[in-house]
Write a structure and sequence with these properties.
This protein has 138 residues and is an alpha/beta fold. It has 6 helices and 5 strands, in the order E-H-H-E-H-H-E-H-H-E-E. A 5-stranded parallel beta sheet has the order 3-2-1-4-5.
Length: 138
């Protein structure tokens, strides 16, 4: 199956929440062969886990991250092409007085150059990027 979605940190981490959103879980299962994530998201998930002290919660997250890794979830890189698109967008947005977080810009760029839809629970983080398709699975 062809990749269609680039899932943000807040979507992938939904699985390990105490009370996960059932709609997100359903969509993740439904589209499991069409989703990828960004290396930036993988970084955010790793940092979030590694900041936790040893605990059941951390063990659960580590187990989930290992599961993601072994599921062959594509983790897409921030390439030269993505960096160029991101630079153009940062320049355009700064001229408009907008400064979205750098990591969100990287995620947006990875989605854009791979022709993927960003799936996020924070649409406002991406709303100013041009020609970017967004979905909220909640």
């Amino acid at each position: 199956m062809k990749l269609k979605y680039l899932v943000d940190t807040n979507v992938l981490s939904e699985v390990v929440r105490p009370y996960p959103n059932p709609q997100i879980l359903t969509k993740l299962r439904e589209h499991q062969d069409e989703i990828a994530t960004a290396a930036v998201v993988w970084h955010e998930l790793q940092v979030g886990c590694q900041r936790l002290p040893p605990s059941r919660k951390r063990d659960k997250i580590e187990e989930y991250l290992l599961e993601l890794q072994t599921s062959n979830l594509p983790i897409l890189a921030y390439t030269k092409e993505a960096a160029e698109w991101h630079a153009q967008e940062r320049t355009r947005l700064s001229r408009l007085g907008k400064t979205p977080p750098f990591l969100d810009g990287q995620i947006a760029a990875i989605a854009k150059v791979n022709d993927l839809i960003v799936v996020t629970a924070n649409l406002s983080d991406y709303q100013w990027f041009e020609e970017l398709h967004l979905e909220d699975w909640r």
